[in-house]
Each structure stands twice: as structure tokens, then as C-alpha cells.
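Retro notes, item 3 of 5
We never archived the inputs for the zinc ion complex last cycle. Fixing that now. Sequence and ligand:
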Amino acid sequence: MDARWPNNARVAVALSWDVDGESALYVRAPERARNQLSELHQRLYGPQVGLYRVLSLLDRWGVPGTFYMPGYTARIHQEGVAAIKAAGHPLGLHGYLHESLDTLTRDQEEEVLRRAQSILGELLGAVPDFYRAPSWELNRWSPEVLVRGGVTSDSSLMDDESPYILETPAGDLVEVPIHWILDDAEHWNHSRANRDKAIADPDTVFRLWAGEFDGYWEHGGAYVLTLHPFISGRPSHLQVVERLIRHIRGYPGVHWTTVPAIAAWARSRPDLPRRTSPSPVPLDHV
Ligand SMILES: [Zn+2]
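Structure as it came back at the time:
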């Protein structure tokens, strides 16, 4: 048993919500964003409808959420930022226009981070120090850029189920790992552009997520679910999230928390693993 969490809990659970709004489409498919209204409107469901259903669900069950918002989305949906803040949930950095970092130069990446920090700082009254990369894409230099920019934790990498220290040339970053299987977009995101991909059966997704949780409970770790209000705010999908909360509530030794709280707790542990990123080219003499 891995009793490393507060109150000797064996597993930490964080429900995280990426409130992307329309932002990603402007970067991923600017032509479609200019010429087709439908996809933008679908994404608008998040800040317009889904977010409030999510906040209500979290309130009903008394569980904390963790939210991430691109700066652009935060600026044009300020009422959403205010609602998240009023409910007491943390809101973290997620790019400006949901740029995939691997399409940016280092200078552009630094500018995007500054812009996002400035907007969220202004709206929240304090600059958040926790980050999730849009689409979980990081450049080789991104962890260093984040540390130099004052960010203390990231939640975008998949090499563990427990937090660890990622060493960078500028200092340490706490990494709180995630995975595709625990991302609603992989199962349910659907648009004209990926019409060949079927929308997954809600029962199947519940079994995947509950099965993953059962494994985390067995082995210990931080179970971080990555959800989007425009996807999981939909009725049958939100029911799956609620079934999952009920399922997890049936277990003892669960610490319901947030991603920045996981990072803060992890940083206080003297025995946290310290790691560096893999070499960009194969190592010699191995
Ligand atoms: Zn996102």
C-alpha cells in the first residue's frame, strides 16, 4: 500500500476540466473557423452550458475540480472564470489560443505564456503557477521555459501515475501525470473533421475509467481525469462522470483533491523521484 497522501489515503483523485472554448479551432483549423460556424458553436457549448452543469455536479457531490483555460477563452468568457473562482476551484494556465507548443519557437512560447499569465492574473487577482500544455504537446525546452516563467507544476506527461520532480536547466518542476485513456476527448470528441470515429458507448467509457481507478487504488498514485465541458458536459457523458464519482466514493482511503494541491503535496515529500527528460538522440555506449 502506498500511503503517501494526506490522512494515509492510498490514492489521490483529481477531476480536471480544460475549458478550451472556441480557442483551439482558430489554431488547428483557421480556415474552418473562418468559414464554418458549426464547429465553433459546438465548442461554445463548453463555456456556455457545460461548465455550469459541471460546477453544479461538483457542488452536489462536494468534490473539488481543477480547471484550465487558455487566456483568450478566459478573456471572452469572463463570467465562466468568475463562476469557477466563486466556487473555489483553482484555475490554471493552458496557453493563449490553445497553441500546440510544438508549432512555436521558443520566443513565441515565452510570449504565449506571458500573455496567458497576464490575462489570468488580471481576472483572478493572482497569476496561477500551475500549467497544462494544450493537447499535452511540449517542446524540449518547454519545462525550462515554464520554470523561468514562474510555473511550479505541469500536468501533461505520461510516464508515471504518481507525481515526480522533472529537472530542467532552470530548476525543478513537479509533473502530475495524465493519460489518453483518462481523457474524454479520446472517447467522445466528435466533429465533421473526424466523422469516421465513432462516439464511444458511455458504459464502455465508465468501465475504462472505473477499471483504471481500481488499478490506481491497488497500486497507489494520483488519478487525474482530463475532461472538457463541451464534451463531458453533455447529458449522458456527465452521467458517466457522476457514476464514476459514486464508484470512487465506495472505496476507503481516497483523497479528493486538485492538481495544484497534488503538486504542492508532492513537493513536500523528501522521497519524490527526480527525473530528467529522455535524450533527444540515442545515447552512446549503452
Ligand atoms: Zn485544452
